[in-house]
Structure of Acetylornithine aminotransferase, mitochondrial:
Amino acid sequence: MLRATFLRNKKLPIRVKLTPSLHIRHASSISDASADSVTGKYVEDIIKPYTVTTYARPNLVLTKGKGSYMYDLEDREYVDFTAGIAVTCLGHSNEEVTKIIANQALTLMHCSNLYYNLPAGDLANKLIVKTIDAGGMADAQRVFLCSSGTEANEAALKFARKYGKSISEEKTEIIAFQNAFHGRTMGALSVTANPKYQQPFAPLIPGVHTADPSDIKSVEKLISKEKTCAVIIEPIQGEGGVNSVDLEFLKQLKELCAKNDVVLIFDEIQCGLGRTGQLWAHCALPKEAHPDIVTMAKALGNGFPIGAVMISEKIESKLQVGDHGTTYGGNPLGASIGSYVVDQVSDADFLANVKASSDKFVDALSKIAEENPDKVVGIKGRGLLLGLQLKSSVDATAVVNKCRSYGLLVITAGGNVIRLVPALNIPNEAISKGMDILAQAIKEA
Ligand SMILES: Cc1ncc(COP(=O)(O)O)c(C=O)c1O
């Protein structure tokens, strides 16, 4: 309704005609909305003056998505290698997901955790059964449902604290890792050792130590049976630079945790649910190295906000009624979508296709690396969580901007990396189209 009014006024005066409930406030302090386009005006006059200043965004207003393509307010088409940051794993506007949403919304959307509901039960059951079938977390027993990644990590940290405190009041410390990203709420932020995110909000929760994910000795120095309750790690760091943590390191990490009775938490919010070509990134580990807790979100809802925590019976045995809770977690709408997603991303053919698509990306990235030895350091990641590491002389953000101007959406990751996290069912033709654009952008960088 608002957009329709807006588009009709192609030649917009500064004060745009709007629906009666909206009023434009002039924001002369906003200096960077220079484009005289419909988008520029919309961003400048309607979005920016009324939206908190926590994101840096280009003048791009997305209006539609289908599969691995997105469309903006100017009706330009983009190949999407971002999938909303590893979220829309089955593509935008997926027809099955849309049907599930419509049917569930007509049946029961929300009933709170005062009562049980069928989709939440089905999802919890499915996550455990399919995880074990897929060779994931061998001790997976119980699921806590919530609404986002950071909330899943908050729950995991609280559960680990509860476990630690069941042994001793002093067993409360947490070990996290350099370049990790676990979320923005106070607990998750406290284990995200990035000064840019942490410093403005200090003091954070006490007793958190940071180790080096390539040096097991750094963990040995920090871990203790008396004080440490949890270690939290992403098996493949996403935001931090698409860094695959060495499998040998993860095995040794589990040994150290077992020796010191410490809860090992794997944050698979970005790397889990089929993204590596296996249901979980940790499926690549032997069961002795499996974690006590796995957190997930992102892909689980294909765009609907949902998160979950999978825990072992050892952790469950320390939990009591009232220890944790949420209004929206396990709501029937999110849970019914999650159930469908889990079915899809655990399917053997689906996962084989993720690997085949990954090979196509890696081939194309290798060609870019070969042709641009002065600009590219190498390729990182696994499956469809891939990174192109650029030399420090090349500005990754400038490459992302150039790609966008040519019709490709990609994102950066820490350490001057171009991050590729497309839909897991991205068609070959979208891969080729997008990779041609990326190749051109790197050539021109
Ligand atoms: C590995 C990891 N953990 C946690 C989070 C936080 O998830 P959310 O943004 O849903 O709170 C993210 C988000 O990017 C993530 O990549």
About this structure: Residues 403 and 441 are 6 Å apart (CA to CA). Residues 85, 148-150, 153, 181-183, 234, 238-239, 267, 269-270, 297 surround pyridoxal-5'-phosphate (CB under 6 Å). The first strand starts at residue 62 and ends at 66. Residues 115-348 form a domain with the Aspartate Aminotransferase; domain 2 fold (CATH 3.40.640.10).
